[in-house]
Amino acid sequence: LSVKRPAPVLPLVTVQRASATPLYRQLREGYRAAIVERRLRPGQRLPSTRALAAELGISRIPVLQAFQQLLAEGYFESRVGAGTFVASALPQDARAGSGTGTPEPTRPGRRPVSRRSGLLPPPRVAPWLAGAGAFRMNETALEHFPFATWGRLVSRHARHPRRDQLAYGDPMGSLPFREALASYLRSARGVRCEAEQVMVVSGSQQALELTSRVLLEPGSAVWVEEPGYGGARDVLTMAGARLVPVPVDGEGLDVQAGAALFDRVRAVYVTPSHQYPLGMTMTASRRLQLLDWARRRGAWVIEDDYDSEYRYGSQPVASLQGLDRDARVVYIGTFSKVLFPALRVGYVVLPPDLVPRFAAVREAMDICPPALYQAALTDFLGDGHFARHVRKMRELYGGRRAALADALAHGLGGAPELLGDEAGLHLTLALPRGGDRQVAMRAAARGLLAMPLSSCYLGPATRQGLVLGFGGTPLDSIVPAVQRLSPLLAR
Amino acid sequence: LSVKRPAPVLPLVTVQRASATPLYRQLREGYRAAIVERRLRPGQRLPSTRALAAELGISRIPVLQAFQQLLAEGYFESRVGAGTFVASALPQDARAGSGTGTPEPTRPGRRPVSRRSGLLPPPRVAPWLAGAGAFRMNETALEHFPFATWGRLVSRHARHPRRDQLAYGDPMGSLPFREALASYLRSARGVRCEAEQVMVVSGSQQALELTSRVLLEPGSAVWVEEPGYGGARDVLTMAGARLVPVPVDGEGLDVQAGAALFDRVRAVYVTPSHQYPLGMTMTASRRLQLLDWARRRGAWVIEDDYDSEYRYGSQPVASLQGLDRDARVVYIGTFSKVLFPALRVGYVVLPPDLVPRFAAVREAMDICPPALYQAALTDFLGDGHFARHVRKMRELYGGRRAALADALAHGLGGAPELLGDEAGLHLTLALPRGGDRQVAMRAAARGLLAMPLSSCYLGPATRQGLVLGFGGTPLDSIVPAVQRLSPLLAR
Predict the structure, then answer these.
(1) Which residues of chain A are within 8 Å of residue B68 when distances are taken between CB atoms?
(2) Is the pLDDT of residue A28 over 70?
(3) A96/B285 Cβ within 8 A
(4) How many other C-beta atoms are found inside a 10 Å radius of the C-beta of residue A165?
């Protein structure tokens, strides 16, 4: 049915012999463009490769290569005994093109996207989080990480990997690493677990994401701490959960207040070792009360133990999970704070009956974690480097915290109210007169990245203050930074 | 209100001085257990640290440490001038315990999990995928990977990381790596893109997961190729999508058949460069037809370009994305096949208007990709190692494919029907008489991991055959493996 058109006498495509682009590719691109732009029409006859090569003054080899490929891609078709033609079945109204550059929609058309992808605003950076500066949250003393040791372990596994470290792995993670993690968590964190319950993830964020997928329906209600951690609220929001902000008092999450607010929740998200951002430790009685409530309610407890390695006044507090007799706690931890964030390694300890579902969801989500870091971390834990590093950093951060508390006491005059235990990588300076966002904005302009406490509330903020990270702020920067901060607080 | 109870004369806890567990921890654990197990009651008075140390015959220091910690955790409370007491507010019916070991639910209670987490069966391994053996899919020639070079690049970045490679990164991935990827994709794959559109992910699975989250509502209909790739169907299923299997013919996905079956779809998932599993290339006319349909329908096109670096009869086929004038194609690629799977690095090229949503969803899901591999891969691409490796492997795999095709022609007698272009890491041997699962089961018993073609169908299989991977099967294993396979096919 296609109209036979004569082969053009002059080639429609030209080639530049001096170009860095190989001749065959120039030809291929030229023909593709000519076809897509309708300069060559379906069914149109093409010159023979011999004739084209002669016409272009080039060897026949690149012409054959180009034709072979255009045939493979279906732009050309070959008819026995008749030669080569532009494929006859190109649609009449094709609007496609070729070349490089960002395509622009020719007309908008329908571009439907999911409702849930719009539940969160596009990533934006609050002024108190932009750039580098003293007191920035989520920073660690990277310069004290033992990169020589770490590099040696990573190099060894990168150069001489075991074959099973190269293929697709277990969606739960590598077993030797999970054994090392289970052993660490049992002894250092009082977590009751076997390696079979431990899943390796890319950090606490992925742990929360997986947990939400397995435990929550869209519309499930979840208790979150008020004030609390925005990253957890984001992932729960995107899972379609209804967040119930439950106030935190001096003992941690107020279970009775939560029960009075809204009791029919599927899960509760807590940071019992070091409440984010207020910094207190959930008391034993609250822990027992929470677990008891969860058992009666049939709710899950999501324990985020993000920085509990760092306590300066006492030994680390044991996990909530270790008290749980009903396998209701999903325990989440990360190496982002104890090693460094770009590592992207964390872990989640699962109630045994949830393991198959977590494994199935994880496999569909991203198959398995990368192997190299798991291998290197297994050695890092097993050879004692991790324990040494934590001990060293505990002393270092303890010094930074003390220096910050001292500087605030001296700089502000009187006794500033510092919230939180001597733990973690941040403390909160209460601002009884409020205005924490304004102070944080002015501080940001001076290179001080203090997070306003009010930004950690889902509802109206009942307290205001500045959350000051000291993990990435060296000792000798602390006094000058507080000196820059003090005048802003005096107003 | 709490009843004052006298301090016990004998300590409720004992310590073992010879134990490897430090004394303070023995004390802490002992008191925690005694409180949780109700041997010590709320409000009960504790002995003084001096008395307890004397009673136990140990130094007072570990006793002070243990008490300090039990106070911090809220198990103990201190009353000014009166001494130390078991915290008064422990709930009466607490059932919690301490110690190690896997907790068993004391009674099942409600343990609600999400419906979507049950949409996929727990990971299970079909007989034709279990263990190691010839023809296993998704394997690559790991022994030919340049680990010395790779290890050198990885070591350099692990030992001497840039500071910005250690902190939390951009949810899109590191910009230098995305620039290297964009440059590679423009020149080698005909993808029209700028670095700003490229997102680094952990592989094609995570790319599909993200794409589903951003583009699909629960219940959205999606065309998938029939037969097609199970991994993609899994992630779409878990996203709540309704899968519409659209038959694939010799030209690729049959757009007209799809439109006749069910036209109101939100997206279509295709493998146009090398259809999985049948191996043909989607023709140019079909590509234009698909893009035209997508534009008119307002549907998205998800292009999975999983192994297109490997074509042996011709140069790689340009991407479908490169023909798209309407920014409707989400282009997905991975390093799992060209480098190795455990790397967990892939990429997705986004329509520019979708970038903010993808970034927001990715940030909530797992914040950002790990830094080290991105840094090492930037060098690996930029220094030409990648291109060299692909060239070398193309020759190697081309040889394996030819040897397999030859061995099948000789071993089976006559002309076996081999489906698919000379490309990728697998070919499909058609079994006109069917019974492919039975053959695959018998083959698995002989250490041959041939995937039955019928297992790639969502509906009833219209073709049967064996999908034979040759990526991980060395040249000298191919003839013996075909000799073991042949008798099974003769029945």
Answers:
(1) 313-314
(2) yes
(3) no
(4) 19
